[in-house]
Amino acid sequence: MYAESLIKLASASTLAVLVIIVSHLRKIGVAKDFSSAAMRGLVQLMILSAVLAYVFTSPIWPAFALPIYIAMALLAGHTSARRVGMPGAIWITTPSIAMGAAVSLAVMTALRVIPLKPEFVIPLAGMAFGNAMNICSLTLNRLLSEVGNNRNRIEAMLALGATAQQAMEQYERTSIKSALIPSIDNMRTLGIIFIPGAMTGMLMAGINPVTATVYQIAIFFMIISSGIVAAVYATYLTKKRLFTPAHQLIEEI
């Protein structure tokens, strides 16, 4: 079984070689980054597979799941904070991503949309954290850009008596809406342009197409809900960092 899997991995690696060759011939300059990312991803997935193989068969899997969730939240928060580039952003991204993922997973399990089993809960948690991270990053990048580009307008509104909430409201809405566009577009084209990864995996495993479809739609609802919760909370926390208690916009933007 393992030998067959290694053979398939080696065969699939020909596509990675193709990427490197094309990058080299066309001087695109991604061969080094791609090779490093591919090796890192492979090592991480192999380690993850070993850990999950043990956790899935453990009778006390919830005790292992909690540290995994914490690690996901911390790593996602750190990665998102690096993308945002704002000092102390990790104290915004980490709780926002954790809240978004926790809310969506809690609803999915409480309503029994997904079974309370490790082989369902842990992979879906990874999807929730990962997508909440991406949406959080996009939201904060757009928000900081909007504030920087509209500083004079915001300060004028504040001078006329507007609160920080009133001055920021339209930029918060624009930032969150912009961050959600890729996810909403993906949902709009489900089954027409592409078959998503989760559904593809279930179909390859022999799951009934109708069951696979139901789970895939549920996953997309989870992804967007975790993202919008993370985005809304992130903009709330960011606003508290951008303004003084007297509703004055700070200088360091």
UniProtKB/TrEMBL annotation:
InterPro entries: UPF0014_fam. Its main location: membrane. The chain crosses the membrane at residues 6-25, 89-114, 120-144, 187-207, 213-236. It is a multi-pass membrane protein. It comes from the Archaea. Signal peptide: none annotated. Keywords: Membrane, Transmembrane, Transmembrane helix. It is found in: Membrane. Belongs to the UPF0014 family. This is Iron export ABC transporter permease subunit FetB. It comes from Geoglobus acetivorans.
